[in-house]
Amino acid sequence: MAKSGFISWSGDESRTIAENLKQLFDFVLASPQLFVASKDLKAGDVWFTEIAAQLDASDVGVII
Asked: pTM for the complete prediction?
């Protein structure tokens, strides 16, 4: 089973779906750590560097 993943979205509707999917997986499966930029990036983070690092570390990706 994947240990980390990256959920990619574009637009308001797909952002809502991505955030809800992350919440569902966090609730149902404790193991995978899923990254969603709108939830996991913090103020002051260098977004490009953080996203690149998360993509590099991810075992699986979901595109919405």
From this structure: 0.78
